[in-house]
Design a protein that fits this description.
alpha+beta, 30% helix, 19 strands, 8-stranded antiparallel sheet, 8 helices, 293 residues
């Protein structure tokens, strides 16, 4: 579910076409583009689109499409449920677009009506109340096998205690704090490389762990956001020494690697991921030696 505005400039030529870096800078936002696993690549765009967020209050991300800027047409949206802070940031972004473009029409696809920037600002509490209701409905839906939200920087596999708490929450404060704190951490969020065998068509997921970097890894090799439903048959990990720009020789079974990490008592990041603390070169070498068949 989303709240989507189609913004159309009434008087073309009145102002220069808008671009994502300029708008992001004007609002104090960070921008980037999602890869196929919904992990943000900061500072990148994709066909004139990007995800924007405020670094001091990171939520689920605001989608901005400037692909038809030369025609005076834009699209901007936020996901529901989201945080009150992000709804306010959305209103601020739209008002900045309105200020720069001059006379505009802003049509909401979901509500099938037009809005003004002022109406958006005045409606923040109403939109927040609807987001709260949507969060509670989402958490109360017992048909889900797992609860996952795409966030601004990466997906969030929601732990059961949070699901239960949000089912009965009476405001968005914990939701907002959780989403920001999770994404404000200075970590590497592991993304796999997927390869398919030519003969059997089986898919393997390959990960890499580097030294001196706190890293988020899935408990299971297939634990990435997999909207295509592909089945991963094998998982492997390689250890890469970034400072020396070389890999430690060998590929290691992902399952054996994760068993070792869990035995060490690594911190849980969410329901499907763990946070592996920074490891020095010698630690990685000892780990590789221990996992070597």
């Amino acid at each position: 579910m989303a709240f989507t505005l189609q913004v159309r400039q009434k008087e073309k030529g009145f102002a220069n076409p808008l671009d994502i870096p300029t708008l992001a800078n004007a609002c104090g936002f960070v921008y980037g583009s999602n890869d196929e696993f919904y992990i943000l690549r900061e500072g990148e765009q994709q066909n004139g689109t990007a995800i924007l967020f405020h670094p001091d209050r990171i939520g689920r991300g605001i989608f901005l499409d400037c692909g038809k800027a030369e025609e005076g047409c834009y699209e901007v949206s936020y996901n529901i449920p989201t945080t009150r802070a992000e709804i306010a940031d959305f209103a601020r972004l739209v008002q900045e677009m309105e200020r720069r473009l001059g006379s505009v029409e802003m049509y909401c696809v979901e509500e099938e009506r037009y809005f003004t920037g002022k109406e958006l600002e005045e409606g923040i509490e109403k939109f927040t109340a609807f987001s709260l209701k949507s969060l509670r409905d989402f958490a109360a839906n017992k048909t889900y096998k797992s609860y996952i939200l795409t966030l601004a920087r990466w997906p969030y596999f929601i732990p059961s205690d949070k699901v239960l708490f949000w089912e009965a929450c009476d405001n968005l404060s914990d939701f907002e704090e959780t989403l920001h704190n999770l994404q404000a951490r200075d970590v590497y969020y592991a993304r796999p490389q997927l390869f398919q065998k030519k003969d059997t068509k089986e898919i393997g997921a390959f990960y890499a762990l580097t030294e001196e970097c706190a890293s988020v890894f899935p408990v299971h090799a297939e634990g990435f956001l997999n909207l295509d439903g592909m089945k991963v048959h094998e998982g492997f990990i390689q250890f890469f020494l970034y400072q020396e720009q070389r890999a430690i020789e060998g590929l290691y079974l992902y399952e054996s690697f994760m068993e070792e990490m869990l035995q060490r008592g690594v911190e849980r990041f969410d329901s499907e991921h763990v946070l592996i603390p920074p490891m020095k070169k010698k630690e990685l070498e000892r780990l590789a030696k221990k996992l070597r068949p």
